[in-house]
Every structure is written in structure tokens, then in C-alpha cells.
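The material for today's practical consists of a large collection of protein records. There is nothing in a record beyond a sequence line and a structure line. As an example, a complete record with its sequence and its C-alpha cells follows:
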Amino acid sequence: MFRALEQHFQLPRLVWIVLTVFLAFRAILILTYPPFNDESIHLSWARIMMENPEMRFISMIWGGKQPLPFWLFGIAESTLPNDPFIAGRLVSLLFSLLTMIGIYKVTKIVSNQTAAIVASLSFTVSPMAIFFGSQVLMESMVGAVIIWSLLLVYTIKKKPTIISAIILGIILGLGFWIKSTNGIVIGLSVLTLIFFIIRHHKQAKRLTISLVLTLLILSLILIPLITHPSYQALTSWNARYGMTIKELFQFPITMWWNNTVAGSIWLLVYGTPLFVLIAFLGIKTSRLLCIWSIVLFFSAVLLIKIPSSRYFFPALMPLFPLYGISTSELVKKKTGTYLFVSSLVLEGILSLILVFRPPTFFQLFKIVSPKINDAYLIAGWESGYGVPEAIAYLKAQSALSPIIILTRQDGGNPEDAMVTAFWNNPNAKVIQIPNLTGDQKSEFLEKTKAINIPIYFISRGPQYAGLKDNLKEVKQFTKPWGEEFVGVYRFSTNAL
């Protein structure tokens, strides 16, 4: 089957087809899916960090997040200041492209070119890869670190060179500047190289040199991060959301079981059951890929206190090369061909639903499991639905005259989205206010009496920062399923 496709389309055409499909799916989601809560936060922080040199590492204090992604998002926002949400998502798109290239190269090293194309195609139409790889999140960067670390590990095994060791050290070092999850990738890479040293006696000396050099480069890159005064705050945040050694030895079996069930459901819905099944059929060909996937999955199970679907995204990365390898053997039989085609078709259909009708896609979770689902991404207050509409309305008003936009002093949607959207707008000033009561509210109302330009308040559902009596509803943008909304109100110093 694959030979027939190669003969009909030829390799360059197949590559262009895969690339076109890759860009099409992600471009639609990038342009149409409203900014999720964490995206708004990341872009708001990125602007602050880039425009204030003394705050370049503030993300570690504010949220226990490494600074490198925010620098990249900030650079993108500076490049496309009129559309910061698209700018930030283009960074993720770039890393997703690097991931796809890495998947192709890893699969080609382990198997063959045909399997590499199939693995890349599977990544291209994977709902989970499309969704998390098209937002202003760290997941696309983590995916790239995992795949390229695997590629360098395989390259060093095949032919240990100084260049390969240096590049691996750089990737692992920068990976930890991106997200703490990549600490697992560092451990996997080091242990894999040690295993190669033990198993391959003839190359043991060269492999040892590669390992030492990798660790040296890694250490040099990590020193500025781990010695920074803000790093202690990062470790404190990690202890808040992740398990400490003391907590692990308390053996929270119930939590681990719940995480295992949740992670499995997320991988099967986002990854599709046929994809996961076919991938693990390739275990005999590459146990290393399978081990990496299992370790990444169970590291999330063991370490995460509050599970989220995107925390299991790393476990999916090694499965794409496994899928391509397994498929190249599977299609030698007629039933295997049907299974392969069915898996790709299923992935493609789910991805089409995801990019064109996200609410419909997330209804699938309710069918599979009423308790374990990602409905909040669509219907919760964290959802971006209603945010672009509110921004569009306010931009239209600011085009008529200068305006002031009030929001609650909170992070996420719609508060940080407003800060990000109107950062460079000379006709709109965003002011975040705390929950006002008593004398504080009276003082605020007195100060605003002198302002003679329109003042709007943007609410997260029915949360009005104590100003409910001073707000007149102008617009209400309801999120899917009608559970939450973003409100646009005209503010008045007099009670309405």
C-alpha cells in the first residue's frame, strides 16, 4: 500500500501534502478558537516581562513558571503588536512544526522513510497535538524537547560525536528553562545513555564522553536559572501543584488511581483508541520509545496533584514514531491495512470536528465520562468564548472616542485578555480594581466623577468587584451551554 502511494505521489508530493494538512488544521484553530484562560495570562505576563527588564524572571514568582516561554511570546507580541493572540500562537505553531520534523527523523532512524511519513501524518491529524500545539501554552515546546532529545539520543547511539552531545545538552538545558516537566526528559535521556554504555561495550568510551559532555553543557545552561533569586519561588510553586518526596512516600493510592483513569481517558479521547492500540503494537520494534511514553505517563500520574489533560500530552510524543513503525508492519496484512486506514480516518474526523466545532468535540468527554472531561475549556469561566466579542465591541467604541475599561483585579479571562488586547491602544486604558466595599468604594466613586469619557466594566460572569449597583448592561456574551458569560457594562458613579 505504502509503495503504491509513494509511486503515485512521489516523496516530495507526500511531504507537501502532510505539511499542507498540518498547517491547515492548526491555522483554522489558531484563527478561530478563542483565547483560553492561561493563554491570556501568558501573553499579559510576557508583555510585562519584556517591557520591564527588572521583571524578566517574575513568572517564577507569580506562577512558578520558567521564563523562557514568556520571552518568546513577548518577542512575538512585539513583532505583531496588533494581534498578540495570533502572535503568541505562532510561536507554538513553530515548535509544533519542529516536533513534526523531529518525529519524522526519529522514525526514519529507528525504521524507514515510509514509517516516518506515516508517523508525521498521524501527528498532523492528531486532535491532542492540534489542540495543545496551537495555543499559547508550553506543551508544543515540551513536545519538541521530548522528540528532539529522543532524536539526539538515537543519533549518539548510532554514532557518538561531540556535536551531537553538545546539541543534546543544549536541548535538555533549554528544555528545563521552558517547563519543569522536562526534568523527566533529562532523567530519561541520561538513563538511556547509561544503558547504551552498558550494552554497547565497543562504543562505551565514546558514549561515556558523550554523556559527560551532555551533562556539562546541561549544567552550564541550568546554572543561571537555578542560581537566580526567584528560583526558590519556582520550587515552592512546584510543591504546591506537584507531589513532594515526603508526599510520595505517603503512597496516595486513591489519587494515583484517579490520575491513571483520568490520564487514560484523556489519551484515548484526544489520541483515539485505534492510534494508541496500533502504537503499542510496535513495542517489539522499539521498546525504548514505549518505555519513554510509559515513564512520561506515569510520572504525571505520580507527581500531579490536580490532573489536567495537557499534563499527559508529553506521554503522547513517543507514540507517534511507534505508530509509524507499527503501521509499516501492519499494512502487510489486509486486516492491518483496514485498521491503519480506520485509525487515520478517525483521527481526521475528530480533528475536523475539533477545529470547526470545538463545543461538539468536547461533548465527547461527557459521553465517555461525565466526571472526567474538559468541558471547562468550552463552557467554564476559563473558556475564551465571549472574550473576542467583548474585545471587538470595545475596540469599536474606542475608535469613536477614548474609553476606560475596568476589570476585576484577577488573572485570566476576561481580565488578562483585556490587558493584552488593549496594551498598545492609545484610545483605551485598562484599569484593574479590587473588590470595592465601604469607604474604599466611596473614594473610588468620588475619584471617577471627574472623568468625562465613557467607562466600561467587563465582568467574569456575575462578578462585579462591588460595583453591581453602578453598572448598566450593554452586552452579554454567553459561553456555550449557557453556564457562564462575559458581560460588558457601562459604568456610572451614580447608583442605577
User: Anything to note?
Assistant: The first strand starts at residue 403 and ends at 408. The radius of gyration is 25 Å. The mean pLDDT is 91. The longest helix spans residues 2-32.
